[in-house]
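Researcher: Please predict.
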Amino acid sequence: MLDQLARQIEALLVATDSPVTLSRICELTGCGTESAEQAVLRIEAELLSGGHSIVVARLAGGYRIVTDPDLGFIVGQLFEGKRHSRLSRASLETLAVIAYRQPTTRAQIEAVRGVNSDSAMRTLLERDLIKIAGRQETPGRPLLYGTTSRFLEYFGLSDLEHLPRMDEMENLLKLSAEDIERMASELSGEESDQITQE
């Protein structure tokens, strides 16, 4: 049985549409950091021991209650026949360059890709997967780009340290488009945001 603080935090994690940070939980509930951490652990334990279909996910530096990824196959049926939001290969390539080289300029991105990235960058900015992170202190002061917390949430990462290493990426590149799509769906647990290579 959860105590009052844990129930309050559980309600916040259910109601939110984006991960809630520990500091925000403390601000909303008036509790201390240690109390909030302990309450989150109690919620996790209660959901696990109770055999629930939901779990506490650590995403983008915060917490959120989501469907258990093991049940993705059944939840995915809700979205069959609906148009999925997909990223093009160009957008994925651009996003990968930004994620691994951030903060980086448009010229640096295009130097790596070897092609113009205007359209891909516009798409990524519109979807809040990248942001303007400042200006480079060089002549012309070009804009610098970096990833957002939405990027972390979209890919099921708690922080940038959880990005695959470059040697892991080489192995991923050997996989088929279907394998990549399946793995991305498992990571994010969101069938509505499937990632494919066009």
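Model: The first helix runs from residue 4 to 15.
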